[in-house]
Amino acid sequence: MNTQLALKGAAALIVLLGLSGCGMAAAPENSPAAMAPMSTEMPMDGMSEAGNGMASMIHIEAGAYRDATPVAAGSTVTVMNMDTANYTLTSEDGSSFSVAVAAGAMATFKAPSKPGSYPFHSESNTSMRGVLTVR
């Protein structure tokens, strides 16, 4: 019986030692695994050009629209309001596009299907202005 107990104890020790080796060792400081993870967030510098597989994004921050880069005709444009006030993004002609964006929220709209420059403003803050260029 002591032999069985010793065998069970030895087997348990072997299993524990084997499992402790399954953990990951610390990566050296200069290895890729030790470096900071890459961000998957979208850049916050205006819009990414549409039509190349990237989303179009307009940011509202500090009571202003970020500079917009050209978008593809008919593409979906997302507006991210990083302010604490509600705004709109409304084309000057009043019919090409208009979207309300609550404080801290996002909204989307379809870019016009006809290429051109489309000036826009906010109905709640008429000093906020920008231009959407559609290619």
Which labels suit this protein?
1 helix; alpha+beta; 14% helix; Immunoglobulin-like; 8 strands; 4-stranded antiparallel β-sheet; signal; 135 residues; 4-stranded mixed β-sheet
What would you note in describing this structure?
Keywords: Signal. By secondary structure, the protein is of the alpha+beta class. The protein has a domain at 56-134: Sandwich (Immunoglobulin-like). Strands 2-1-3-6 form a 4-stranded mixed sheet, with no helix packed on it. Strands 5-4-7-8 form a 4-stranded antiparallel sheet, with no helix packed on it. It is 14% helix and 30% strand.
Protein topology:
Layout (H helix, E strand, L loop, with lengths): L1 H19 L35 E6 L2 E2 L10 E6 L5 E5 L6 E4 L4 E5 L5 E6 L7 E6 L1
Parallel strand pairs: 1-3
Antiparallel strand pairs: 1-2, 3-6, 4-5, 4-7, 7-8
Integer average pLDDT: 74
The arrangement of helices and strands along the chain is HEEEEEEEE
In terms of quaternary structure, what is this?
A: single chain
Q: Estimate percent helicity.
A: 10-25%
Strand content: 25-35%
CATH superfamily of one domain: Cupredoxins -  blue copper proteins
Question: Largest sheet at a glance?
Answer: 4 strands, mixed
Q: What is the fold named in CATH at topology level of one domain? A: Immunoglobulin-like
Number of strands: 8
Uncertain ranges = 15-20, 23-54
Terminal CA distance = 85 Å
Provide the CATH top-level class of one domain.
Mainly Beta
Helix segment tally = 1
Broad structural category: alpha+beta
Strand order of the largest sheet: 2-1-3-6
Compute the gyration radius: what is it?
A: 28 Å
Identify the CATH architecture of one domain.
Answer: Sandwich
Shape: globular
Keywords: Signal
Organism: Arthrobacter psychrochitiniphilus
Pfam family, one: Cupredoxin_1
InterPro entries: Cupredoxin, EfeO_Cupredoxin
